[in-house]
Write a structure and sequence with these properties.
This protein has a single domain (2-76), classed as Glutaredoxin. The protein is α+β, with helices and mostly antiparallel strands. It has helices spanning 12-28, 40-45, 69-76; strands spanning 2-7, 32-37, 53-56, 59-63. It has a 4-stranded mixed sheet with strand order 2-1-3-4.
Length: 77
């Protein structure tokens, strides 16, 4: 099971990113642990300066903007 964190302050782009990840995981039949991180100090702790950002199993894989579905599918492969 992948541990995925969406870093952001709760803006519309952050919510969209979370929803896209959930939908992609369901489509692939993959169980994920999805967490939304809205604490600024925690976000900065990952070295992220632009949100939404995505962290998978402790590694930042995306920062700034909504990732496209193809990119999300690759993360879940």
């Amino acid at each position: 099971m992948k541990n995925i964190k969406v870093l952001g302050t709760g803006c519309a782009n952050c919510k969209t990113t979370s929803k896209l990840i959930e939908e992609a995981a369901q489509a692939k039949g993959i169980t994920i642990q999805l967490e939304k991180v809205e604490d600024i100090a925690a976000i900065l702790g990952y070295g992220v300066m632009s949100t939404p950002a995505v962290v998978i199993d402790g590694a930042v894989v995306h920062a700034g903007g909504i990732p496209d579905r193809k990119k999300i599918d690759n993360w879940l492969s």
